[in-house]
Amino acid sequence: MVKESKGNVYEETMKRLEFIFKEFDNVYVSFSGGKDSGVLLNLTLKYAKDKGMLDRLGVFHIDYEAQYSETTKYVDRVFESLPKEVENLRCCVPLKCPTSTSMFETYWRPWEESKRDIWVRELPKKYLSKDDFDFITDDMSDYDFQKRFSLWYHQKRKAKKTCVLIGIRAEESLDRWRTIVSDRNINKYKKVSWTTKMYDNVYNAYPIYDWKTEDIWVANAKFGWDYNKLYDLFYYAGVPLNSMRVASPFHDAAKANLSLYRAIDPNIWGKMVSRVNGVNFTAIYGNTKAMGWKNITKPKHFTWKQYAMFLLETLPKEIADNYRKKLETSIKFWKEKGGVLSEEAIKDLQDAGIKFEIGGKTNYKTDKKPVRMEYIDEIDSRDFKLIPTWKRLCVTILKNDHVGKYMGFSQTKREAEKRKMAMKKYKNL
Fold it and tell me: What keywords are annotated for this sequence in UniProt (predicted)?
């Protein structure tokens, strides 16, 4: 087991890399084109070169086709400058990628052959295509592909043990911290906290988990490493340091900053408008009340319930049915079982003259009280998201929130079962 000392983050990371290359005969870096994975890649290349281990290293990248030009330029520079011993694992495959920019589509496919005439850009010089993988299915998501790729590469290299290096930092979010160092996660390699087991003899590792954002930029400056110049443009545009994201532009995580494309990369923006339905609307309203704030407005001749029904009628049947099922479940839940609300929310209901019942016990570990009630049109409350209103449903639809997170939903049983079956199918491959 590797022992952590109290050196600086650079020294600690080099010790972690020493441990990884000692324990694993097959290593690859998951490279997104962002600042964190870029620094991790440079650190790993430096270590492997100094130790004469470049032939044990690969660089994995999912190319999403539609992205900032500076990101593409940076990724191109990285792969063109890789030592010949390092394996190029740049993937251009038509996976199902979630989108929150369209009311008509829940996903889109980069590099989809049938839409070649509206591709945002051409394929890179060297890449792995769908034909290179025997495990891809039409329903495979980018997340599932990324996970399954590790096992495929492990088997392809006939490796004894494979380690996937990922540039996740705990500072980014509490969820990331839990992913990396959770005490409840027993699937660690030799009890090393910053590792996670993915398959037998295949592990993820997070060597820069304790780095700060400032450490990333200090390293780039000190060592003169190349980086995605998009961050410079973000800085000039006034984007806060911790809000700079190089995510897929149609993903929920990048939605609020989508409008920056028009100012920073107008040529790409023009192509993106036609690439995925709804991009222009999201760019205009993605960071405003129209995409989900409780202060959204409706046509004056509608109640919120009527407006919700109107929105549902404008959607394709499959999408509308998905929302209707969630609505039906939510109505039944609040009427029969009830949800938990704070004292403040309950007072807001009382002040508004809303009829409701307060239950006795609840299975939830909370000081809040269980409340049973019918759906209401709207309410002015700080806990607006927690109260069952038709307005909340309208917000969910306008946010293109297909899962229904705004209404308190998580994955459905069908979605969870589908994932379970996929994991079972690939478990012993």
Answer: Transferase
Helix (H, G, I), strand (E, B) or coil at 224: coil
pLDDT tier, 399 (very low <50, low <70, confident <90, very high otherwise): confident
Angle between helices 390-398 and 304-314 (to 10 degrees): 30
Q: Is 182 part of a structural domain of the chain?
A: yes
- Please, which pLDDT band fits residue 297 given cuts at 50, 70 and 90? confident
Q: What is the distance between the alpha carbons of residues 31 and 282, in angstroms, rounded to a whole number? A: 27
Strands 26-30 and 57-62 come out as parallel
210 lies in the same domain as 319? no
Total domain count for the chain?
2
- What CATH number is associated with residue 87? 3.40.50.620
Residues 45 and 179 in one domain: yes
pTM of the entire predicted model:
0.67
Contacts of residue 337, defined as CB under 8 A and 6 or more positions apart, other chains included, come to 370, 372
Q: Are residues 208 and 323 in the same domain?
A: no
Q: For residue 393, give every residue at least 6 positions away whose Cβ sits within 8 Å of its Cβ, in sequence order, or none.
A: 304, 308, 323, 327, 407
The amino acid at residue 216 is: I
Residue 179 lies in a domain: yes
Q: Which residue has the tokens 């600042």?
A: 35
Query: Domain end: 181, 214, 247, which one?
Result: 214
Q: Within 10 A of 325 (CB to CB), how many other CB atoms are there?
A: 12
- pLDDT per position as a tens digit, 140-184: 999 999 999 999 999 999 999 999 999 999 887 656 566 565 555
Range of the structural domain that residue 193 is part of = 9-214
